[in-house]
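This part of the workshop introduces the protein records we will be handling. A record pairs a protein's sequence with a compact description of its fold. Comparing a sequence with its tokens is the quickest way to learn the format. To make this concrete, we reproduce a full record directly below:
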Amino acid sequence: MSTVVVKEKKLKSKGMPVDLSEKVITVIAYIFVTLLTLIALLPCLHVISKAFSNGSAVISGKVYFWPVGIQLETISKVVTKTNLLRSIKNSLFVTVVGVTASMLTSILFAYPLSKTDLKGRKFFIVICIISMVFNGGMVPKYIVMKTLGLLDSYLALILPHALSIFNMLIIKNYFEGLPESTMESAAIDGANDVITLFKIVCPMALPVIATVSLLYAVSYWNIYFSAVLYIKSSSMKVLQVFLKDLISSALSVSDSLITDPNVYSHISPDGVVACATVLAIIPIVALYPFIQRYMIKGITIGSEKG
């Protein structure tokens, strides 16, 4: 007897119409999802509205979830008169190079660990778990970077994050779920491990590769503490450091952007911060439509095996 029939009998025994109960549950679910959506969406709409609103409306608190007195003066000034574009270029460089390096190390590490016949496999996995839970701390990391001469360089932002054990384990678990017969066939045809990995395994593992790449991209794009710790040159500041500096000095920045007293009403400190924030999230948000279809499948399948 199916669970649906049992459920219907229980509902009928209680004198409750099946259709009505299902409608009530559906309505409650829609209300709950709608509330969660609004909680996530309204703050974003508020920031976007401030970015395009008249400065006087922002200062007076008239802007909520829709722009008041739409203007583009703030965006124009932030793009042309601040170091926003330079910081975005720095973050893009770190993200692209970092994701490439991280995916290469993660795939090369995950592939041998996915082989059950690898000698010492359990030992290496235990070491990985230990390194994921414990680390040397901030001071030893800084000493290492200074000793290697990597301070004030992009490598200081990339190398410490070049391998995430969590992401590597997701890839490893996905590799374990791939059909072994395909790889055995490639070996029979004379393919070595390198050819098998990059021409057979990676194309089949595209969902998890796209998913983990996005996870790495978000991590590199949001780098802040490492940038504050290792980077001192203003020309190498990444986006998150730029936004922090902008928020802490929003009033002076907004005053410096006002070259004409007649446009004072168009620019406000909160508007400048909101504008920079909106411009900062555009590149990373633009990736989601291209990778979204891989994300759920990649994480779900990659987490099925331990």
Residues 18-52 form the longest helix (35 residues). Residues 3-81+249-293 form one domain. The radius of gyration is 26 Å. DSSP finds 17 helices and no strands in the chain.
